Amino acid sequence: MSETTPQTPEALPLLTPAEGVPPVVDTEEKFLQLLDALKNGSGPFAVDAERASGYKYSSRAYLIQIKREGGGLHLIDPIPFGPGHALFTQLNELFNTDEVILHASTQDLPCLREVGINPSKLFDTELGGRIAGLPRVGLGPLLESLMGVSLAKEHSAVDWSTRPLPHDWLNYAALDVELLIPLRNKMYELLSDAKKWKWAEEEFASILLAPPAPPRIDPWRRTSGMHKIKKRDQLAVIKNLWIARNEIAQANDVSSGKLLNDAGIIELAIHKPMTKKDVEKTLRPIGMRARWSENMSTWIAAIESAVNTPEDQWPPMKSGADTLPPIKLWRERFPEKYAPLTHARFAVETLAHDLSIPAENLISPEVIRRICWAPPAASTAALDAAAVAQAMATLGARAWQIEIVAAPVATALLEREPREIPLPETPESEPAVD
C-alpha cells in the first residue's frame, strides 16, 4: 500500500489512567452518579466491554468501560443489574445524544445490545484504521503509531466473570478507553486527509443497521478439522457429539471447548470408540486435558446413537446451505464463471492497492463471487455496469463501494479466458464438506 503508518518516537508505556482506576459501579446509587457525571461531560463516548470468551458459553458483558471528556472514566459491572434494566435504558438515551466510539465494534455490540445499549451513531477505530490503509489496526498498534504510547495486554484472555475482579484487571480494562477519544480524532484526520471519511461514515452506519445474523444451518458442520472427515457415518457422530456438547455447555454456561474440544470430536468420529477405555485411548494422543471425562457417558451415548442410526438418516456430505463451490472447483467445472472471477478479483486487488485499503474492505469477496457465479441477465454479453451495481446493492454492498467497483467488475464479466495466476481460496470460502 502506498500509505504508511506515521512514524513516531519510541512508544511510552501507558501504565494507569490519568485519573486512576475508578471504583466499579455495581449498585443503583453508583449508576445514577455515573449518569450525572457523564451528562456533565461533552462530546463522544468511548466504550468497551469485556466478555468471558473461552470460559463461558454466553457472550454476555462482564464489564463495561466508558469515558467522556469532562464526564470521567467509569467501570460498570452489568451482572447485578441484568439485561434491560431501566438504568441501562437511561444510559442508552444519553449515548444517543452523541457518537459512541468502539474498537472492533462488531465484537462488542451484541453484548452491549443485550443489556440495552444500542448506539445510533458509531465510530469504529479498528475499521477506520483499515479504511485509512494502516497496516496494523489492533488497539495497541494504533495507540503506538498514532498516539506514541504502548498498552500491556497481559489480561486480554482472562476470565472476566471472576468476582471480585482484581485491581490489575480493572486497570487494564480502564486503559482500553483512556485514549480512545484522542485516537478517534487522529483517525478522523487521517480519513479526512485521504478523502475517505465518507467511506468510513457509510461503513459505520452499515454496522448499526445490519440485521442479526440468521441461525446457521447445521452449525455442527463448522467443527474444526472437518477436512479429515470422508464418510457420512462419521458426520453422524460429529453431529450427535456437537449437539450433546452444546446442550451441556448452554445449560451450564461454560465454553464448549472446555467440555470437549473440536479436535476431540473429530478423533471420536473417526475411531468411534464405544467404551470408556477406548474413548480415553482415542483422546490421550491429542493431549486432551479438559473436562471431557465428566460427561463420558454422554459422549459414549452420542457415539452409540450415531453408529446405530440407519444409513439413510446419516447427514449428507454437503449441507443445504446457500454456499458456493470452493474456488478450486471453479476452474475445471465452471470455467465460464471462473474466467470473469479471475479478472474481477484482479481489478479489485488493483483498486485496493491504489486506494490503500484492504481488498476485503473495498468490497466483500463474497459479493464478487456471487456476482460472477450468478451475473445479472445479459451482463455477460454486453457491458452493463448499472445491472452489476444493482446486484451489488442487493448483496449488501455500500454506495461508495459500488461507485468504485461496479464498472470494473462489469467489464470482468465479459472475459472468456482466465488470468494466468490461479486464484487461491479466501477465508470466506466454505469448507468442501459444508
TrEMBL record:
Residues 231-313 form the HRDC domain. It holds the Pfam family HRDC. It comes from the Bacteria. GO terms for biological process: nucleobase-containing compound metabolic process. One of its GO terms (molecular function) is nucleotide binding. Signal peptide: none annotated. InterPro entries: 3'-5'_exonuclease_dom (IPR002562), Exo_C (IPR041605), HRDC-like_sf (IPR010997), HRDC_dom (IPR002121), HRDC_dom_sf (IPR044876), RNase_D-like (IPR051086), RNaseH-like_sf (IPR012337), RNaseH_sf (IPR036397). CDD domains: RNaseD_exo. This is Ribonuclease D.
